[in-house]
């Protein structure tokens, strides 16, 4: 895959910038404030429709006379593709060969990897950073995973709203509605669990070569998918649905008291170890950065 051309207009300090890129490595050099990071941000935006510096696209635009526009041409084994991202401050448009497309169709045309200070939170930050790491990898391979994640989040939100409405001590027929939501949530959660677990196993199987290049002889980098509920990690993935329903039932009084769902894929984690030592808790800054490079 080769990004042959990148265009950026009204993105931070870039206006009407266009570059043709040769095959092989390209090094971008320049003084501070000249737009090096913004150019990389434009490439990342083109490949993912998002920024690696902010979650709010409106923050990228600093010109008043038109929408933000990033475009590029990608050459791959399947042929040449033109990509375009347009953001007018309210809506985002994605174009594939000049035709509007949904995100799950647009993604996967330009593979990009960012190694930024923010991404170091994958190992240093809370579990939600590692869940996003797993899901970003999955979306890169299966863009339809976006819909699976969105459905699960919607169901968790609706179940949480019902828990708060019922409140502690709910009994009898009032719990029948919760039973129905639990069934739907377990079905959605099972799809996420199966795909995350499969992806984590595939990732673990590919760490060896990159790990040996960055760590001393004999040091082995390992990853372990840690699902919620924890006991599900010991089962056949196909058994996750029933196991999750058992956990929901066992924790129902707690969930009603707290007003939110305590177990499920929204509580998953990824354990990263170097020779049996949890890098999240005990790894040095250098070890964590090297492990992130290997994982990426």
Using DSSP, what is the number of strands? 9
Q: Any low-confidence stretches, pLDDT <50, length ≥5?
A: none
What's the gyration radius in Å? 22 Å
User: Could you say which structural class the secondary elements and strand pairing correspond to?
Assistant: alpha+beta
Main β-sheet, spatial strand arrangement: 2-1-3-4-5-6
- Please tell me what the overall shape is: globular
What is the makeup of the main sheet?
A: 6 strands, antiparallel
Strand content: 15-25%
Q: How would you name the oligomeric state of the polypeptide chains in this document?
A: single chain
**SSE string:** EEHEEEEHHHHHHEHHEEHH
Helix content bin: 40-55%
Notable characteristics:
296 residues, six-stranded antiparallel sheet, three-stranded antiparallel sheet
Task: Describe it.
This protein is of the alpha+beta class and 296 residues long. It has helices at residues 36-48, 103-106, 121-124, 127-141, 145-166, 176-205, 207-214, 240-250, 252-258, 279-282, 285-295, and strands at 2-9, 17-20, 68-76, 79-87, 92-96, 99-100, 221-226, 269-274, 277-278. The strands form two sheets. Strands 2-1-3-4-5-6 form a six-stranded antiparallel sheet, with helices on one face. A three-stranded antiparallel sheet has the order 7-8-9. 44% of the residues lie in helices and 17% in strands. The longest helix has 30 residues, at 176-205. It is globular.
List strands and helices in order, with pairings.
Layout: E1 2-9, E2 17-20, H1 36-48, E3 68-76, E4 79-87, E5 92-96, E6 99-100, H2 103-106, H3 121-124, H4 127-141, H5 145-166, H6 176-205, H7 207-214, E7 221-226, H8 240-250, H9 252-258, E8 269-274, E9 277-278, H10 279-282, H11 285-295
Antiparallel strand pairs: 1-2, 1-3, 3-4, 4-5, 5-6, 7-8, 8-9
